[in-house]
């Protein structure tokens, strides 16, 4: 059935105009003035509203065995939460343990999503070991459309790779034309700082930041950039949190390293004092790299607006407060890391970025959708409103008030990091490939309709 969205203001990263959008089947078939509705079409009046391309979260964890526990969301709960917030495409990290087989891990992660998601999805392939068999397995995984890698410089003894493995992964990425995404923190420094803090009785969540200070992250970024420069690989720093780390990435880009930067909504709107809240409340705000001193926030906002930072993600890693975060009551190093935000990313970015004048509307679309689509081989199918693109559309009320609460959110998690926060602007209608999936706060989509998006390698010479 056709859908006609009338009278909206279309906001793309590179254009802005008033027009109607006709959707036939799964794609946008026409954009223009005064388009007549075909017989039987669903007509949506978007007068006074923005129409955005569906938003893309380029860094989420839905299935994640981590720190002795397992994330709470399933693809059903996560995709419905994503759609409630205007996100129509998820890029999940496949995170095998070092002992796991890469191809079997790809199949496992894919099985968690296939037939269970209400929105489209794809993956970055985590490389947590590199031995004699790895290259062939990774080539096979890239050939089925998982055309990006993920490495962890942190999490020594869990997901972390050695320098030799990092070198081999980047060399292979360069050869295959795929980008390697990386969690950048110096693992040795984290380990020694954690030991020192715990040994001196500093065991609460407020000490998590001290165990991973900005220089630990900056060293990780510098390390990655050195290896990227030596191999010619294209790299993407995930969840960059502070000025020191951004300086390293920017310096590398200035000398020609092919590097891109992601930050998270959490770093823009919350700071390290949240993790210092008494009575173990701070555990809700433990993630890595940690929430930083507030003075970093204007630098990150400026980075997004000026193009030093290219994408905005959530690193959604949903662990309950009860029973999961509580595992670290007597030792902050055992608090499962993550601040779930999948549902709230776009609304918070709009409220605290666009509405305060820190981010213009087109940069908002760039960092929350188009930038990730381009970097990860989804553009122009995703990330833009154009004839022939998938009809993933968000009709956005620019001034509607809202309030975030665990009582009303769709994520399968027992708390909200933003409990009681007021928001401005919200998605009124969200479509997934031409079908209305969310309208006026109601999920109208279909669990299982979300498709795996096979991607080409787009980082070749
Ligand atoms: O604290 C975080 N970031 N948790 C998720 C795992 C990761 O490092 O991406
Ligand atoms: Zn990470
Ligand atoms: Zn992550």
Automatic annotation (TrEMBL):
Necessary cofactors: Zn(2+)
Protein name: Dihydropyrimidinase
InterPro entries the UniProt entry points to: Amidohydro-rel, Hydantoinase/dihydroPyrase, Metal-dep_hydrolase_composite, Metal_Hydrolase, Metallo-dep_Hydrolases_sf
Free-text description of this protein's post-translational modifications in UniProt: Carbamylation allows a single lysine to coordinate two divalent metal cations.
Any one annotated GO CC term: cytosol
Keyword Metal-binding appears in the UniProt entry: yes
Matching Pfam families: Amidohydro_1
UniProt domain Amidohydrolase-related: residue ranges: 50-436
Keywords: Hydrolase, Metal-binding
Annotated organism of origin: Verrucomicrobia subdivision 6 bacterium BACL9 MAG-120507-bin52
Any one GO MF annotation of this record: hydrolase activity, acting on carbon-nitrogen (but not peptide) bonds, in cyclic amides
UniProt similarity note: Belongs to the metallo-dependent hydrolases superfamily. Hydantoinase/dihydropyrimidinase family.
Gene3D superfamilies: Metal-dependent hydrolases, Urease, subunit C, domain 1
Residues annotated with N6-carboxylysine modification: 150
């Amino acid at each position: 059935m056709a859908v006609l969205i009338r009278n909206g203001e279309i906001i793309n990263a590179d254009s802005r105009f008033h027009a109607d959008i006709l959707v036939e089947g799964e794609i946008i078939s026409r954009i223009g003035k005064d388009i007549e509705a075909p017989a039987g079409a669903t007509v949506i009046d978007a007068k006074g509203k923005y129409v955005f391309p569906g938003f893309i979260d380029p860094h989420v964890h839905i299935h994640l065995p981590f720190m002795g526990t397992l994330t709470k969301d399933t693809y059903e709960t996560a995709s419905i939460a994503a759609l409630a917030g205007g996100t129509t495409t998820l890029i999940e990290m496949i995170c095998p343990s070092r002992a796991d087989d890469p191809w079997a891990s790809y199949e496992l992660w894919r099985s968690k999503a296939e037939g269970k998601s209400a929105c489209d999805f794809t993956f970055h392939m985590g490389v947590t070991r590199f031995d004699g068999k790895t290259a062939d397995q990774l080539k096979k995984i890239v050939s089925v459309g998982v055309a990006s890698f993920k490495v962890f410089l942190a999490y020594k003894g869990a997901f972390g790779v050695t320098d030799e493995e990092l070198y081999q992964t980047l060399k292979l990425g360069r050869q295959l034309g795929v980008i390697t995404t990386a969690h950048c923190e110096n693992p040795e420094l984290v380990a020694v700082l954690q030991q020192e803090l715990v040994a001196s009785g500093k065991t609460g969540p407020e000490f998590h930041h001290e165990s991973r200070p900005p220089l630990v992250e900056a060293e990780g970024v510098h390390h990655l950039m050195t290896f990227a420069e030596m191999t010619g690989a294209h790299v993407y720093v995930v969840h960059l949190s502070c000025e020191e780390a951004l300086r390293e990435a920017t310096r590398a880009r200035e000398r020609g390293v092919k590097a891109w930067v992601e930050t998270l909504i959490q770093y823009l709107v919350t700071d390290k004092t949240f993790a210092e809240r008494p009575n173990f409340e701070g555990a809700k705000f433990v993630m890595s790299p940690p929430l930083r001193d507030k003075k970093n926030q204007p630098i990150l906002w400026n980075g997004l607006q000026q193009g030093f930072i290219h994408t905005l993600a959530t690193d959604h890693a949903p662990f309950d407060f009860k029973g999961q975060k509580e595992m670290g009551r007597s030792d902050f190093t055992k608090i499962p890391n993550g601040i779930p935000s999948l549902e709230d990313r776009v609304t918070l970015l709009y409220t605290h970025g666009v509405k305060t004048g820190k981010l213009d509307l087109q940069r908002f679309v760039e960092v929350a959708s188009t930038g990730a689509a381009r970097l990860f081989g989804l553009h122009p199918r995703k990330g833009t409103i154009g004839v022939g693109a998938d009809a993933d559309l968000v009709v956005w009320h620019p001034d509607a008030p809202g309030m975030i609460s665990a009582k009303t959110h769709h994520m399968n998690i027992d708390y909200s990091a933003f409990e009681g926060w007021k928001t401005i602007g919200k998605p009124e209608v969200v479509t997934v490939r031409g079908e209305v999936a969310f309208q006026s706060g109601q999920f109208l989509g279909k669990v299982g309709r979300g498709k795996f998006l096979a991607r080409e390698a787009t980082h070749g010479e």
